[in-house]
Design a protein that fits this description.
The protein is mainly beta and about 550 residues long. It has 4 domains: about 90 residues, Immunoglobulins (Immunoglobulin-like), CATH 2.60.40.10; about 90 residues, Immunoglobulins (Immunoglobulin-like); about 90 residues, Immunoglobulins (Immunoglobulin-like), CATH 2.60.40; about 220 residues, Jelly Rolls (Sandwich), CATH 2.60.120.200. About 0% of the residues lie in helices and about 55% in strands. The protein contains 1 helix and 46 strands. Strands 29, 30, 32, 33, 35, 41, 42, 43 and 46 form a 9-stranded antiparallel beta sheet that branches. Strands 31, 34, 36, 37, 38, 39, 40, 44 and 45 form a 9-stranded antiparallel beta sheet that branches. Strands 2, 4, 5, 6, 8 and 9 form a 6-stranded mixed beta sheet that branches. It is globular and about 65 Å long. The protein starts with 10 loop residues before the first helix and ends with a strand.
Length: about 550
């Protein structure tokens, strides 16, 4: 395949084509012309709008103003209306700016005042501790939430007794250990939707005693890394424990150097990839049983990286940054052949627990002919104001990398002026370098070009059947000039600091999109890759 095949093909980065399952908006409830009680249940969905893939929906009552927007291709919401006739406007927006609307007329016969509307707290599920439970401190907190006021959850958090001092977790689950004094307490567990909705639930507990377990390290078996070992980052952590202070172990965790920011996992084993900067570190491995805790410390030394880059702890992230975690688990991922390239391709996806760092990695199986390219894409927000981004994910190449030409990891963002910024970035097996995209034309007359940097990268040189950590830092100006600051591969930094124009007048509605594209090499072949723990920070 010609390594310059994409140099004038904007479609290779920004266009997402999907075979429509159905066109327009379908409303399954309420029925048109029916009489209902208020609040009523609205169910609607849309796959395509004017042949464009739907990335957002919304609804309004009687007036087209005050539209409630849902970052999804379906709506499931409770709607309150007064007695009488009404018209519900249900809307859908395509990923390239198209809009569709369907109206449904109905009559509210009565307003149910005794029904408690679906409360925000109903969306937050706390499996441990139980409400009213008596526990020993520290205790394990386990909670989850998938939606909040019909919005997909982007973050969760918790606090003890007061709503201040909330610990925020960028995930749809919370697993943590909480320390509290003896006595009665209220645990506040919270969830936030992608468009700003907030939900919470309170759990009243009584702490009966403080754990006196000294943390007998002999009960925890750490098989990797060995104590005193010299390792490279990221390194594999494997540890198990069945009992702690004669109590059955229910939860384990680990932290690096500090006892804060502990990563907690359910069960009697920890298997994780840990990233650390070069130098001496102490790995704290922990286990909890009913009312007791145990720990083991492992002293290690992280060796420096190769001469092609600088070992570091990763890109800088602002303290007030917003993030969306576990993007690989979102339900709106789509696969499409990149028609801007040669040949043909097809792709399949699934969520798997192995190989995985989080127990829910996304598996990509791509088949291609004549060096075909397959693009996998997901929408994860619609922030137009953010100007700084960090892409942070883990990639696993299964079996062999001989069929992988390029691995592309992009972001697309619509700015306040309506233009779309393409943050195009790929590991190029032809040039053996990290490439970035540049618009060498103008936003209205674009000429998208892949440019080779001086930072070396070739996916076919990556170790297979192991996880690789990819982090990219970039920012933009108000006019769409993008600065690619740096890229980190397995903890080794390559500084870039390259500024180019990358704005396009595409007419899109506000959106944030991530692309994970796999390009084939040669006449035909297949490739299996995995993506895990994908998080995008923005501020």
């Amino acid at each position: 395949m010609n390594p310059l095949k994409k140099l004038s093909l904007a479609s290779s980065l920004v266009l997402i084509s999907v075979s429509p399952a159905f066109a327009g908006v379908t409303i399954s409830s309420p029925g048109n012309g029916t009489e209902v009680s208020s609040p009523l249940q609205l169910y609607a969905a849309a796959s395509t709008c004017s042949s464009q893939s739907v990335n957002a929906m919304g609804f309004s009552l009687d007036s087209s103003t005050d539209t409630t927007v849902v970052d999804n291709n379906s709506v499931n919401a409770r709607v309150s209306a007064s007695t009488g006739k009404h018209t519900l406007h249900v809307k859908a927006w395509g990923d390239q700016g198209a809009s569709c609307v369907t109206d449904v007329a109905f009559t509210v016969g009565n307003v149910v005042t005794t029904e408690s509307s679906a409360s925000a707290s109903d969306t937050v599920s706390v499996s441990s501790p139980a409400k009213g439970a008596s526990v020993t401190s520290p205790f394990a907190l386990s909670a989850a939430a998938s939606t909040c006021d019909s919005e997909g959850v982007s973050a969760m958090g918790y606090s003890l007794d007061s709503s201040t001092g909330t610990t925020v977790v960028d995930s749809t689950t919370v697993r943590a250990t909480v320390t509290a004094s003896t006595g009665k307490h209220t645990l506040h567990v919270k969830a936030w939707g992608r468009q700003g909705a907030a939900c919470d639930t309170d759990v009243a507990i009584t702490v009966t005693a403080q754990s006196t377990g000294s943390g007998s390290s002999s009960t925890i078996s750490v098989s990797s890394p060995a104590r005193g070992a010299s390792v490279t980052s990221p390194f594999a952590l494997s540890a198990t424990d069945s009992t702690c202070e004669s109590e059955a172990v229910t939860t384990m965790g680990y932290s690096l150097d500090s006892s804060s920011d502990t990563t907690v996992v359910d069960g009697k084993a920890v298997n994780a990839e840990v990233t650390a900067g070069s130098g001496a570190h102490t790995l704290h491995v922990k286990a909890w049983g009913k009312g007791v805790s145990c720990d083991a410390d492992v002293a290690i030394t992280v060796k420096g990286g190769s001469s092609t880059g600088t070992p570091s702890g990763g890109p800088s992230i602002a303290s007030d940054a917003v993030s969306v975690s576990e993007i690989q688990t979102l339900s709106d991922w789509k696969a499409a052949h990149d028609t801007g390239g040669p040949g043909s391709s097809s792709g399949g996806m699934s969520i798997v627990s192995s190989p995985s760092l989080s127990d829910h990695a996304r598996k990509f199986v791509t088949k291609y002919s004549k060096a075909g390219d397959e693009r996998y894409s997901a929408t994860f927000g619609d922030d137009t104001s953010a100007t700084n981004f960090v892409y942070d994910g883990w990639v696993y190449v299964a079996g062999s990398a001989k069929d992988v030409a390029n691995l592309e990891m992009d972001l697309n963002q619509v700015m306040p002026n309506g233009q779309t910024v393409i943050y195009g970035f790929q590991c190029d097996g032809y040039s053996g370098a990290w490439d970035y995209s540049e618009n060498k034309g103008t936003p209205t007359k674009p000429n998208v070009t892949w440019v080779h940097s001086q930072a070396k990268c070739n996916v076919r040189d990556w170790s297979t059947n192991t996880w690789h950590h990819v982090q990219v830092s970039f920012s933009r100006s108000s006019t769409g000039k993008v600065t690619y600051k740096g890229v980190w591969l397995d903890g080794v930094e390559h500084s870039l600091n390259i500024t180019v124009l990358s704005a396009y007048a595409l007419g899109w509605s506000p959106t944030l999109v991530t692309n994970f594209q796999v390009d084939g090499v040669g006449s035909s072949g297949s490739m299996t890759l995995y993506l895990d723990k994908l998080v995008v920070y923005r501020w």
